[in-house]
Amino acid sequence: MTRITVEVNDDWLDAARQALGTPSKVATINEALRIQAVRVQGQEIAAAFQSVPMDFSGSGRSFGYSGGRDLSSLAEDARDQSEA
Hints:
It contains four helices and no strands. By secondary structure, it is mainly alpha-helical. The model has no long low-confidence stretch (mean pLDDT 87).
């Protein structure tokens, strides 16, 4: 960990502490930094996916169902198993 001395806006710090539900000023600052770092990582991952050409045409046939699973008999199947 790095120890630093920094001046921060008290109103912003209090607002962030309430929003994040953190117990201390240090925890609030660390959580805010963590959230920002995760946000940047998410943007980088999204950019990586957008840079790769993807063709989803025909993917429903590839998975053997038409874009979804038929769950209409799920309750009936469960009843049959409990009666057996």
